[in-house]
Amino acid sequence: MTDLSPPLTVAFDGPVTAARHISVLAGLSGRFRTTRSETTLTPDVLVVDGTIPDWPAACAGARAVLVDRPRPGMAELPDAPLFFADSGYATAPAWTAELPRIRASLDDTVAIVESTVAVPHPDGLSDGLFSQLALLRDLFGTNVPLTPSAVTPGRGYLLTGSAGTAVVSLSGTVGPPGLTLTTVAPADRWHITMPAPGTARSAVVTQFTADGAHTARPRFESPRRALWRTIHTHLTEYQPACSAHQLASALPDLTTIACVLATHEGWCGDGYDHRRSPVGVWTNGG
Amino acid sequence: MSKPLGVGLLGAGPVTQAIHLPTLATLGDRLRVTHVMDVASDLAATVAARAGARHSSTVEELLADDAVDVVAICSPHAFHADQVTAAVAAGKRGILCEKPLATTKVEAERIAQAAGEGGVPVVVGAMHAYDPAWIAVREEWGDLPERAHLVRSRIYLPGNDEFVALAADPAFPAPPPPAGPRPTAADRLRAGILGLATHAVPQLRHFLPGPVRVVSAQTMTPFGYRLVLTGDDGRTAELVALMPGAWEPDWTFEAWAPGARLHMTYPPSYVLAGSATATLTDVSGDRCWRFPANGYQVEWLHLADVVDGHAEPLIGLPIAIADMLYALEAADGAASLLEDQA
Lengths: 286, 342
Ligand SMILES: NC(=O)c1ccc[n+]([C@@H]2O[C@H](COP(=O)([O-])OP(=O)(O)OC[C@H]3O[C@@H](n4cnc5c(N)ncnc54)[C@H](O)[C@@H]3O)[C@@H](O)[C@H]2O)c1
Hints:
Distance between the termini of chain B: 60 Å
Strand order of the largest sheet of chain A: 7-8-9-6-10-11-12-13
Number of helices of chain B: 12
Strand order of the largest sheet of chain B: 8-9-10-7-11-12-13-14
CATH topology of the largest domain in chain B: Dihydrodipicolinate Reductase, domain 2
Bound molecules: nicotinamide-adenine-dinucleotide
Number of helices of chain A: 5
Largest sheet of chain B: 8 strands, mixed
Oligomer: heterodimer
Radius of gyration of chain B: 20 Å
CATH architecture of the largest domain in chain B: 2-Layer Sandwich
Number of domains of chain A: 2
Structural class of chain B: alpha/beta
Largest sheet of chain A: 8 strands, mixed
Order of helices and strands of chain A: EHEEEEHEHEEEEEEEHH
Strand content of chain B: 25-35%
C-alpha cells in the first residue's frame, strides 16, 4: 500500500471552486479529503475564488489557502501561513522538468521570448495572462515589466517588454484553450505547446539546434494535479524555500494585469458569468 | 436533471482506483459512487472511505444495496461472467463490465441469455471503442472499412504502474506471486491477447469482420506479442505489443486503403488526457479529430444515458460478445500456432 500521512482536509468557499478542483482531488484521495460544505471549521487547505472581491474574509484558520483565478485588487495578503495561486500552465510537469535546461540556454544571445495563450471565454483572459507572467518569472527569475501594445475589448491583448537581450511578446486571445511559448537565439530555439491546464495530456517541449530537434519525454499529469501535489509536499514536509507559485511572488503580476485592465476597462468585463461554465465531462479539458 | 445514479464497484484494485473513481468524479452530476466491494475488506474500506461510499466484502451485500443503481465489475477476469449475471438477477439498472466480458464462449452465452431476459444494458469497458475521436472519424470514413487492405495495432507501453501513480494515490497491496505452474509461452500469449489486444478488437472488426486466421504468432520479452491475422478475402492485420519500456508510450491503430489512411493515436490508459487523435488522410488532405473527454468518460456517460432512457446502446451486447469471441478465437489460434511451433 502507498504509505501516506493522514489526508489533509480541503474545503471550498463555494460550488464554483469545488467544481473546478474536485475531480483532480479524486485522483489524490490518499493525500487530500474534500469537504463539500462551505466550512467555518479549520481545513488544512481552503480554496477560494479569487474573482470574489471579499475572498480574504473567508481565510481565517486555514493552514494554507489556494486562490483560484486570482484577480487584481489584492494589494496585500491576509494572515495565513501559506498562500498558493493556481497559475494554470506554469505547473505543467513537462515544463517544470525541462525548465533548468531552458533557463540554462537563455544567455545573452536570446533574441525573443514570445507566448500566445488562448482561453475559451473572455473572462479567462486574466487567467491566461497570469499563467504567462508566471512562466516568464520561471524563465527570468524576476518579474518582467510589460506594456500593452494592443488590447481589444473581449478579444485579447498583445503586450511588449524586454528581459536582458530578449524582446518579450505576450499575446492572449479567445479560442480553443492552449498555450505556446517560444524562445529564439541564433544557436537554439525552444518551442513549447501546452494543452488546456485541466488535462493530463502532456506539454510538448522541443529544443531545435544545428543538430536537429529533441523533444522531451511527455509527462501525463495535469498542471492542476501537479500543483496539488506541491501543496501537499509543502504542508507535510519541511520546505526551506517554497518553489511553488505562491501568491506573494505573483502579486506584481496582478498589478500588471490591473494596469492592462485599467487602461482597457471592459476587455474581460463583458458580462460573461463563469459560474455558468459547464461542469462534468468537459471539465478536464478546460 | 434526474438524480445522479448510484454506482457500486465490484473489485477495488488499480482499475477502480485509478480509472473509474477519477473518471466518475468528473461526472458527478450524473453518477455518484455509493458502494465499493472487494474480497480484501481492508482495501474496500480504504477505497470506499476515500470516495465517501459504503463498503463490503461480498457481492451479495453490494447487490442488496438500494443505493446501487449501476454495477461496475472491476474484479479479475474469472469472476466477470458470474458477477454480470448476479447483477442482472438482482434487478440492477445497468452494468459496466471491465474487459474481457468473459473468458469462454459458454460464459458469454450465459451472459447474453441473462441480460436479454433481464433487459439490462451491459456496457463493456472497451474504452477505445467509446473514444469520441473514434466515434467522430467513423462518421467520415466512407467506405474505408471495405477498401482497407492492411490494419495495424501497435501498443508499446511503459509499465501500468507509472500511469496508475499519475491518476491515483494507490491503496492496493502488491499482487501475490503467481501460484501454480509457470505459465507456458502459449498461456502468456493468450493472456496478452485477452488483456491487451482485446482493446483493438472492436476497431479491428470494422475492417476484418471475420472469420480470421492467425498465420503468424510470436511472443516477446519482457511481455509482448506479434500476431498476423488474415481474412478470407486476403486482408491482413498485424497486432504488436511490448511492455514495459523506458520510452514514451505509443498506442496506435492504423488502416490503409488505396488513397486513404486512418491513423489513431491513443493517450495512455488511466490518466484523464482526453481522447485519441484520429487523422483521416485521403486525396483531399488530412482531417483530424480530438476531444477533451476520453473513452472512459464517454462509456460512463453513455451508460448513464442508456439507463436514464436518453439513448440506445451504442455497442449492443451481441456486438460486445462477438468482439469477445473474436479475441478468444485469435487468442486460441495464436496459442495453438505457438504450441505447434514448439
Ligand atoms: N479498461 C482498461 O483500461 C483496463 C485496464 C486494466 C485492467 N482492466 C480490467 O479491469 C479488471 C480489474 O483490473 P485490476 O488491474 O484492477 O485487477 P486486479 O486483479 O489487480 O484487482 C482486482 C481487485 O479485485 C479483487 N477481487 C478478487 N476477487 C474478487 C471477487 N470475486 N469479487 C470482487 N473483487 C475481487 C482483488 O482483491 C483486487 O483488489 C480486469 O478484468 C482487467 O482486465 C481494464
